[in-house]
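Q: What would this chain look like folded?
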Amino acid sequence: MLSELSIENLLLIAAARIEFDSGFNAFTGETGAGKSLLLDAIEFLLGARGDATMIRAGSEQAEVSARFILHDKELVASFTRDLGIAFDEDGSGVSELVVSRAIPKTGRSRAHANGRPIALPALKELGERLLDIHGQNENQSLLRAPTRLEILDRFAEADAERNAVRTAHRAALDAAARLNELRRAARDRAGRQDLMRFQLEELDGARLDQLDPAELENELKLLRGAEKIREAALAAGALLDGEDADGAAQFLSRALRALAAAGDAGPDAQSLADRIEEMLADVSDAAREAGALAEKARSDPERLAELEDAFAHLRTLQRKHARSFAELKAMRDTLRGELSGLDQLDTRTEECERDLARAIESLKSACAALTRKRKSGARELEKKVNAELKGMGLNQASLRIELTPNVGRVSGAPAAAEPRGAGVPPASLSVGRLSEPSKFDLSANADGLKGRSTFDPDDAESHALDLLPAHLKSSGAEGAELLFTANPDLPPKPLRECASGGEIARVMLALKGVLARAGGADRLPVVVFDEVDSGVGGRLGSVLGKKLRDLAAVRQVICVTHQPQLASCAQRQFKVSKKQSGKLTTVTVEKLEGAQRIDELALMLRGAEASAHTREEAAAMLKAAQ
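A: My prediction, written as structure tokens:
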């Protein structure tokens, strides 16, 4: 519910703070008193266009704020999920939402929801989910195509069927995206296969699995300087442990014998002898390694040429592909896998085409089940609304809910991405006359990705839609239109095109009442009516007042009215007045209680000629209505 509304320096309102009742709230006042300014303030707060001309003369900025008390947990969760609005959780199950918007003389307007900035598109969406205005400005939720479908589905208890359609549509879209990618790969396959095979032959020719770059480089060094290395190794071996007496090993052996000749010379001499033995062992090992190196460093021109070619080929591949040895091996393995996949592409494409055909059949079946539920629900809703209209002074009026098949795309035209939760534009076929869609051509629009060498995920869904029957959307196979006629001699037309503001308001009141009684099919917490009493007399005003009071049992109702009979049914009444002070005009809003309310109702009944008898009549009317 809308708990409180504060307005500062907006148009003719200097300051107003209005505390609403959770049920039926009525705003009354003389014609031209400024009652419509309250609706202007609410619409501005919730995203309507505003500029500096709305600022009251002599003020620097205008500001409107409101506090909403929300009991619908799912609605609150959607605000957080879809609009990023944060709520304080206190465990009570009741959430508070504070919305404010200010517009300065210079600069752009600023809006906040629960203390955080909120963008104008999000603010508008928030307003559409919070509040429904019925009157001159045609801001009614039921005049918006997506809302009509959602409400009809709730009334028809078709949530399960609607969710099944969404799931089936998502599955078909995913299958179409996979098929599009395979077809794109098939178009590029010939050129890609030639290039990939050439690259793989190059890498296989390098025999990467048989190579160790470090060992290859070491062997090349040995073969390139084989003679010099052999001579140096032999010389080193001879110096370490040669056959003559000039080798290091021989000198160390003589040193050991000299120490041994001294006999038991104590621990220091023994320690020295141990060190010399270790040195002798190391020298002997080094001599053997020198001999092995000399043996390895033998000239082999054929082996050298083979290794030079392998080394040059490896370096060429590394420079060409800008990859390390390990990355070249990974590239080779990737190429093998991709070539194998391309070789199986035709088979995979055929399998995916079958998958898509099955997914589309499932989508058709889900849409057909939803359509059946909608037809039944539309007939029942029509019957109940038309019964309500007869009690509102629209005895000859008739409302028809017409299901309209979604329109397919023109051949060759690109698919437009379907907005989330979007409805469909109305066509002109009534319930029971849904046309049979054209046969689905699986090969249609196959060139949607022509020329692309890489897959673009941002365009995937748009291109995938090209492969689905255009009339089957995530919202089903049809839209819903409200057709109305106030005269049985005239054919029904779309409600928004042929009905007056008062007629629309009364149709909406009838719909709201029926939907609210149908387990909350319409979940908007606040309903605002302007001109609902347009062109009606006192007796009918009383009827409308009782209808509004009944609706207020399940939805908060705010109504601007000229009818005392209607106003007397409200749980809370406010008077809007206009005062002149010099050249400055001010609009004020006053809550009426007790005698003040009776005086206002008497004034509405007889105007300036209201008498004591009129006050008695007003008091009796108020008592009877309450």
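The longest strand covers residues 61-70.
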